[in-house]
């Protein structure tokens, strides 16, 4: 068998494999979206107010437990205090504040 026909067969097989993979991913995506939609339509999801209050509670907890969190990050991951504060506390609090401001 010639090398060009082998290459052609390999390319066809790869193309088939990619197409099958894409079809499977799309079908999985459709299933996930359908499941999420079904769950949402049951009314079991939480209200906007509940979610907003949870974000506020997380922000308050980060502020109140800042020293404990930075200490744990240092002990567990050797993160310096400034890095722990900037990356793991302040960024989350800023994102919560930004979400709160954007929703008003």
Automatic annotation (TrEMBL):
PANTHER family: ALDEHYDE DEHYDROGENASE, ALDEHYDE DEHYDROGENASE FAMILY 3 MEMBER I1, CHLOROPLASTIC
UniProt protein name: Aldehyde dehydrogenase family 3 member I1, chloroplastic-like isoform X2
Lineage: Eukaryota, Viridiplantae, Streptophyta, Embryophyta, Tracheophyta
InterPro entries (alphabetical): Ald_DH/histidinol_DH, Ald_DH_N, Aldehyde_DH_NAD(P)
Residues passing through the membrane, by range: 12-32
Domain of life: Eukaryota
UniProt entry keywords in alphabetical sequence: Membrane, Oxidoreductase, Transmembrane, Transmembrane helix
